[in-house]
C-alpha cells in the first residue's frame, strides 16, 4: 500500500482494522475493503473504503436500501465508526471512506500552503 509516513506498517494497520470490524460484530461476508486508485501515475494516491452490507437483511431488501457514505473528520479513519457500522447497515448500504492521507488511504505528498489548496486536496480525491 505504500503508506510510508503513517507511523505503522501496512500489516499492523490492516490487522487493527480487521480487529475493529470483528469487534463491531461484522463477519467477513458483511464487508468489503476497497482500495481505489485516484490516478495512474502515483501509486500512493488511492482511497480506502469499507463497504458494509448487513446479512440480517434479505437480499431483496439489500437491493433497494438507500446508500449512506460516512466520512470521518481530520486525523481520524473509517474505523472511527466501528460501533455504529453494523446497526447502520441494517438500514443502509454503507460506505465508510478514509480521507486521502488518513486511515488506510494513500499518503501522497502534501504540499498545501493555503486553506483553499487543502480543500482542493481532499475534495478532489473524493470526487
Secondary-structure topology with pairs:
Blueprint (H helix, E strand, L loop, with lengths): L9 H14 L7 E7 L8 E7 L6 H6 L2 E5 L10 H8 L3 E5 L17 H12 L1
Structural write-up:
The chain is of the alpha+beta class and 127 residues long. It has a single domain (10-126), classed as 3-Layer(aba) Sandwich (Rossmann fold), CATH 3.40.50.1820. It is built from four helices and four strands, in the order H-E-E-H-E-H-E-H. It is globular.
Keywords:
127 residues, alpha+beta, Rossmann fold, 19% strand
Summarize the structure.
This protein is α+β, with helices and mostly antiparallel strands.
What is the CATH T-level topology?
Answer: Rossmann fold
Low-confidence stretches: none
Q: Specify the biggest β-sheet.
A: 4 strands, mixed
CATH architecture identity: 3-Layer(aba) Sandwich
Helix percent band = 25-40%
As a whole number of angstroms, the C-alpha radius of gyration is: 15 Å
> What number is the mean pLDDT?
88
- SSE class: alpha+beta
Order of helices and strands: HEEHEHEH
Count up the domains.
Answer: 1
Count every helix, treating DSSP H or I runs of 4 or more residues as helices: 4
Q: What fraction of residues sit in β-strands?
A: 15-25%
**CATH superfamily caption:** Alpha/Beta hydrolase fold, catalytic domain
CATH level 1 class label = Alpha Beta
Q: Tally the beta strands.
A: 4
Distance between the first and last residues' Cα: 21 Å
Q: What general form does the structure show?
A: globular
Q: How do the strands line up in the largest sheet?
A: 1-2-4-3
Amino acid at each position: 500500500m505504500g503508506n510510508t509516513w503513517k507511523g505503522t506498517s501496512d500489516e499492523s494497520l490492516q490487522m487493527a482494522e480487521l480487529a475493529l470490524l470483528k469487534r463491531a460484530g461484522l463477519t467477513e461476508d458483511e464487508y468489503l475493503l476497497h482500495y481505489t486508485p485516484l490516478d495512474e501515475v502515483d501509486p500512493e494516491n488511492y482511497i480506502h473504503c469499507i463497504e458494509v452490507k448487513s446479512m440480517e437483511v434479505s437480499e431483496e431488501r439489500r437491493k433497494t436500501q438507500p446508500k449512506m457514505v460516512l466520512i470521518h473528520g481530520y486525523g481520524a479513519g473509517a474505523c472511527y465508526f466501528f460501533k455504529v457500522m453494523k446497526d447502520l447497515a441494517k438500514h443502509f448500504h454503507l460506505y465508510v471512506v478514509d480521507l486521502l492521507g488518513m486511515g488506510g488511504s494513500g499518503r501522497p505528498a502534501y504540499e498545501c500552503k493555503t486553506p483553499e489548496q487543502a480543500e482542493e486536496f481532499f475534495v478532489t480525491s473524493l470526487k
